[in-house]
Amino acid sequence: PSTVKQPIVQPPTRTVVSPTATVQTQPAKEDRHETIKGIKKIMVKTMTQANTIPHFTYCDDYDMTELVKLRKKLKKLYQQEKKTLKLSYMPFIIKACSLALMEYPILNAHVDAKCETITYKAAHNIGVAMDTRDGLLVPNIKNVQLLSIQDIALELTRLQQQGYQGKLTNEDMQGGTFSLSNIGAIGGTYAVPILVIPEVAIGALGKISLKPCAPENLDDSSSSSDDDEDSYPDVEFRHMMSISWSADHRVIDGATMARFSNKLKSYLENPMMMMINTK
Ligand code: CAO
């Protein structure tokens, strides 16, 4: 029989580090001190005050698949008509919040410093936390209850541009009644938002991302039967968004927050329902 020649395998070479070797480092630079002033100083005050309010956080996941499809179609239509409109998810979410606030006006309220009076605000001035040149700012879109989704998109773009240029005005910043923080525009899933006092509720939006989910309408034929208890239905990939609400627990209870969130969820999961309800 012919003999097969085995290849000669060389043992791997190793770099032996002498135990006496030392890492050469540059001397540390001097610490830098910065006075907290301007908008950062205001943030110290408002956040510290807000954190004294007993609040709770409630989270849920929304299926945004239908809205993702709708936005895609609308963006295409705008492109075909050569119209320039920055149509992110925010204008839809802001409008849906306003529609849900119609049914839960307590979430669009202010409370005074001593918590003796609740003022149900007539206008839905929805604040949007913005990562601006000057740091975190929360300008608001006025009278969302009267605006179309397109109007909201235009106003959000204006505020965003003003924010990036450091040109937001006092008028842009004052009079907010309810707030949203789209941290998902940067990344992340959950955040515990801090109230923008004297408002009583704020929501933090996570990143919309494809996640495996159980099919929504499981009928008996596709669900696991008694004979095969270990079988599971095939998963579907859906565009999911987590949302975290913080609310002033002195005047808002968890059940109200959950019902409001369910209402908002129903609009965002079935955007056609928004059209029917939009005045
Ligand atoms: N999930 C997935 N995609 C998202 C998203 C989300 N949650 N939010 C935004 N996007 C997408 C947008 O749809 C857009 O995509 P297209 O280019 O395809 O249209 C893109 O990301 C850029 O969006 P944008 O950030 O310019 O616009 P926006 O209207 O969604 O958000 C604003 C505006 C001002 C909320 C946002 O720019 C911002 O500043 N977010 C940070 C908020 C923040 O710092 N919160 C923390 C507060 S506590 O410190």
Automatic annotation (TrEMBL):
GO cellular component term of the entry, any: cytosol
Bias (Polar residues) ranges: 12-27
Subcellular location: Mitochondrion matrix
Residue segments, region Disordered: 2-31
Tree of life domain: Eukaryota
Catalytic activity, reaction form: N(6)-[(R)-dihydrolipoyl]-L-lysyl-[protein] + 2-methylpropanoyl-CoA = N(6)-[(R)-S(8)-2-methylpropanoyldihydrolipoyl]-L-lysyl-[protein] + CoA
Top EC class of this enzyme: transferase
E.C. numbers: 2.3.1.-
Main localization (coarse): mitochondrion
Obligatory cofactor(s): (R)-lipoate
Transmembrane segments: none
Keywords, alphabetical: Acyltransferase, Lipoyl, Mitochondrion, Transferase, Transit peptide
A GO MF term: dihydrolipoamide branched chain acyltransferase activity
Similarity comment: Belongs to the 2-oxoacid dehydrogenase family.
Record's protein name: Dihydrolipoamide acetyltransferase component of pyruvate dehydrogenase complex
Source organism of the structure: Didymodactylos carnosus
